[in-house]
Structures are given as structure tokens and as C-alpha cells.
Design brief:
It is a single chain. By secondary structure, this protein is an alpha+beta fold. It contains 8 helices and 8 strands. Strands 1, 2, 3, 4, 5, 6, 7 and 8 form an 8-stranded mixed beta sheet that branches.
């Protein structure tokens, strides 16, 4: 058991952004994090305050809702294979050509079909930790647990399981859409932290420089649930039930 994981559902909810209004919430969070807070992307339409790119047209999205305030405070997307061109690249491939070649050798030329890339993961600064993690779009902190009596301000600064919860949410969303595998370009330290929770991403190529050190990782749906702690298995079940209830 990883201390405090079961608390995730007390504080947060994963919501599929399956309406136009919810997708605009995603784009606004991305603008706040990637443009305003980190300065990684140039400001676009100042009127809309939304960050978008060409991959959004073939993506599905989820939001992270903070239950105490009712605010959406995080998001991610799953970029799917292009239905018009099954050989169209995922975003990570431009930075990781060795991983692309390895995946083609392992799975064949149509390896992108029934696969997705987790990208544009973001959590607003109020809910990321201080120090170096303020310079990362998602916290991957080390298991400190909030005191039940602490203030909301302290909860925002210190809640340790946002990264794991978001990635479990991505897995649940991928399962709902019958994805066989997912990929992500992430910091190696985040991959190490996720392994503590039983989320066993496989590194597919060497680290590259992209707003700091990032490496390409893959995760097979067939093995995902096998490595999860009991707490995260319960969280996955809860998120899948929540997503399914919304679709009814």
C-alpha cells in the first residue's frame, strides 16, 4: 500500500472532457500552465486564453476536478491514431526517432493503431509543489500526506498523488476506448515515482532535452493492472465506474 493513495477520491474526480464546453476548460488550463506559468508556449489568442495544437483534433481529454472547490485544476489528453492516416506520427516521435523504429520493429508498420500518447498533462500552479516542481507541469512528489486538519492552501501545496491519479485516469480513459498501449514523453523521475505506485512504464529510448530531460515510455494495457497496488486498483475501478456512469 502506498500511503495516502486511497485519499485521492476524497479530494479529486476524473472527468472525461466529452463536450465542447469541457474541452474549452482543458484548453484554458493548458494556457494557464504552459503559457502563463511556465512560458513554454507562445501566447496565442489573447481573447480566448486557450492553448491548442494540431493533435487536439484526434485526441480525447480528461479533466481533474477539485471536489472541495468544484474547480477544474488539471488535465491531460490521449492523442489517438489518425483515422485518415494510420502511419501519422504521435507528438513524441519528433523527439524520439529511435523509439519509433523500435516500436515498428516490435509491433509492425501499423503499430500506432489501437495506441495513444498521453500528452499535454498539466496541473495549475496552486496544486503543484514548491521548488523544482513549480517548473514542471505536473507534480510528482514523494508521498507526504496532508494532515486532515490542515488548510485548503496547504492541501493545494502538498497533495502527493495527483500525478498517479491523472495517469490512472488516462489508463481508464484508454481502456474505455480499447487502447492496446499508451506512450508518454516524461521526466525519468516521474516514471520512477509512478513505478512506486505500480505503474510500470517501459523506457523506449534515451533521454532527450525538451524543457528538461524527457524520455519516451510505453505501457501495455495487457500488463497495466497486474502491477498496480491494491489501492490503485481500487482507484482505477472507481474512475472507470465514474466515466461509465457519465456515458449512460
Amino acid at each position: 500500500m502506498v500511503e495516502g493513495v486511497c485519499d485521492f477520491s476524497r479530494f479529486f474526480e476524473i472527468v472525461e472532457a466529452d463536450t465542447e464546453a469541457l474541452r474549452h476548460e482543458v484548453y484554458r488550463i493548458r494556457h494557464r500552465v504552459y503559457v502563463d506559468e511556465l512560458g513554454w508556449e507562445a501566447a496565442g489568442g489573447q481573447e480566448s486564453q486557450e492553448e491548442t495544437d494540431i493533435y487536439d483534433r484526434r485526441a480525447i481529454f480528461c479533466l481533474l476536478k477539485h471536489l472541495a472547490t468544484g474547480r477544474f485544476i488539471g488535465c491531460l489528453r490521449l492523442v489517438l491514431a489518425d483515422p485518415l492516416d494510420p502511419k501519422a506520427a504521435f507528438p513524441f516521435e519528433a523527439l524520439a526517432p529511435l523509439a519509433t523504429r523500435a516500436l515498428a520493429a516490435r509491433h509492425g508498420e501499423f503499430w500506432r493503431v489501437h495506441a495513444a500518447e498521453i500528452s499535454r498533462t498539466a496541473v495549475i500552479g496552486d496544486f503543484r509543489r514548491r521548488g523544482a516542481e513549480r517548473l514542471s507541469p505536473i507534480s510528482e512528489s514523494n508521498g507526504e500526506r496532508p494532515d486532515p486538519g490542515q488548510s485548503l492552501h496547504d492541501e493545494r501545496r502538498g497533495f502527493p498523488h495527483i500525478a498517479a491519479g491523472l495517469y490512472v485516469g488516462a489508463a481508464a480513459l484508454g481502456m474505455a476506448h480499447q487502447m492496446a498501449r499508451v506512450f508518454a514523453l516524461m521526466e525519468p523521475r516521474l516514471a520512477r515515482r509512478l513505478r512506486v505506485y505500480g505503474i510500470q512504464f517501459e523506457q523506449l529510448g534515451p533521454p532527450v532535452e525538451h524543457h528538461g530531460q524527457r524520455a519516451p515510455y510505453g505501457l501495455e494495457a495487457s500488463s497495466f493492472e497486474q502491477g498496480l497496488s491494491s489501492d490503485l486498483s481500487d482507484l482505477l475501478w472507481t474512475i472507470r465506474q465514474t466515466l461509465a456512469a457519465r456515458r449512460r
